[in-house]
């Protein structure tokens, strides 16, 4: 997905949010926003939003001197998600269609996102996703593909959300390689966050090598690219991965909640819509 | 009121909205946003938001080659407001307290604002304001001040809104000088818009001389400043004028709807609140 003009003010808002998390001094945050403002001219509309997000959060890290300003927030998200693990497991197992229920749970976990969302009223938003109709639901193709695939490449998104992914992984009952970012970026899941969520107990962990808030292939490691190109069945979580991979000719199923008007317009959907969208 | 960090992404959003109105070419709008991005470092947090808005909309005019991109929108706003004139007049005259009802009408007109609001669902928002409780209602002081004042200086805000102001002017029954901006800026009312609304039939018109979206005194004409400094009773409409005049030691009554989180925080109120706020 390309960068839309509406993404530019949003980049500035994101820098402000990250700046407020990493710094106390208003003047220092102002200087950060000044710098990000000057970076906008170097952001071509042809690049994907996570490519630009990567540059902006690099600037945040550089100016705050903090390579991982969201660390505590991520730990808190994981704790909050773990507290809901048993309840959601039970909800899935009691469901008439546990696989689709677990897909819903994984999408519900996607509400944890400090890049796109300001306030996350976790409990409320999770309930909403669990009960919402799918705007796109390629579940037949998903079941088919999953049944035939010997293994699953599962590209994770945010910390905390990993706990919800774990429930889908456990429900699918297939060997899974779970992909995390190569370095901290916003609240995206790194190896540390996946381990804290217990993913290492149910899947192999692999880093994509990227330092971007989305799986931008040219920033990924060779090792990841080799695995990605051979993967028979891929699950991609969240907006950042969608933005980076939406034009890829691979067997990717995108699980996400539409969190901003720009993506909604790009997909012909509405903000708040939830999707299980297969390869086109 | 000072500029908050949250105003900076908003300035960029405003430039985008104005760019979309004035230009078709995405590349040209991108160049505008690049320029505005680079201007952010020259915006001190000590300046008021309309001072910065002024610089940004100057850039919009410069880059679009259009000194008045909102002209048609303003004309459309005036037409839409005039269509509601008789109905609102009747509502005021039937009201138990016509003066406070007319104050409500004037505040309701303030929902017409393409600077702060994206979509204006006019009819719906007007109804809402007419029925809403005041968050601040210094109506006793307002009545007192108005009764004693030989004349009123009424500082207008947006085109279209003028029609609603006219109803308050007609209800107050005092000689009124109605102040418009000196040059087109966003959808703010100029002399042309006030005349289209029929204000010239019920009040004297005067330009403040400013080219800012708010009455920033150092950008106003000497003639206006002379009148302003002697005015015994002043009505100030809308956020832009509030932002510019909130710290002024003058007998100003602010009539506005709080349209953004930043002003809400600054005033200790909530977005959507309506106010008739006297001098402190």
Short overview:
The structure is a homodimer of 280-residue chains. Chain A has twelve helices and seven strands.
Please explain how this structure is put together.
The mean pLDDT of chain A is 93. Chain A is 51% helix and 11% strand. Chain A has 2 domains: 7-64; 71-277, Rossmann fold (3-Layer(aba) Sandwich), CATH 3.40.50.10880. In chain A, helix 1 packs parallel to helix 3, helix 2 packs antiparallel against helix 3 (49-64) and helix 5 runs antiparallel to helix 6 (122-131). In chain A, strands 1-7-6-5-2-3-4 form a 7-stranded mixed beta sheet, sandwiched between helices. Chain A is of the alpha/beta class. The first copy, chain A, has helices at 7-22, 26-39, 49-64, 71-94, 98-109, 122-131, 139-148, 161-172, 191-196, 222-230, 238-245, 261-267; strands spanning 134-137, 152-155, 176-180, 204-207, 234-237, 252-257, 274-277. The first copy, chain A, has 12 helices and 7 strands. In chain A, helix 11 links the parallel strand 5 and strand 6 (252-257). The interface between A and B is medium-sized, with 23 and 23 residues.
């Amino acid at each position: 997905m390309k960068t839309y003009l509406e993404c530019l003010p949003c980049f500035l808002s994101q820098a402000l949010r990250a700046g407020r998390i990493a710094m106390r001094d208003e003047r220092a945050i102002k200087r950060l926003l000044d710098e990000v403002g000057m970076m906008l001219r170097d952001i071509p509309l042809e690049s994907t939003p996570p490519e630009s997000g990567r540059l902006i959060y690099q600037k945040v890290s550089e100016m705050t001197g903090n390579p991982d300003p969201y660390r505590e927030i991520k730990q808190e998200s994981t704790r909050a998600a773990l507290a809901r693990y048993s309840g959601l497991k039970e909800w899935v197992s009691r469901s008439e269609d546990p696989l689709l229920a677990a897909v819903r749970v994984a999408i519900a976990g996607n509400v944890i996102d400090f890049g796109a969302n300001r306030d996350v009223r976790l409990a409320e938003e999770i309930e909403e996703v669990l009960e919402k109709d799918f705007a796109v639901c390629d579940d037949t193709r998903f079941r088919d593909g999953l049944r035939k695939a010997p293994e699953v490449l599962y590209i994770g998104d945010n910390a905390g959300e990993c706990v919800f992914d774990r429930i889908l992984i456990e429900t699918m009952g297939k060997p899974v390689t779970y992909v995390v970012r190569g370095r901290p970026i916003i609240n995206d899941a790194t190896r540390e966050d996946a381990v804290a969520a217990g993913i290492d107990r149910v899947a192999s962990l692999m880093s994509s090598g990227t330092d971007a808030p989305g799986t931008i292939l040219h920033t990924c490691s060779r090792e990841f690219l080799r695995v990605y190109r051979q993967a028979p069945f891929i699950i991609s979580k969240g907006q950042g991965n969608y933005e980076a991979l939406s034009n890829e000719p691979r067997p990717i199923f995108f699980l996400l909640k539409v969190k901003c008007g720009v993506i909604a317009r790009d997909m012909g959907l509405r903000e708040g819509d939830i999707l299980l969208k297969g390869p086109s």
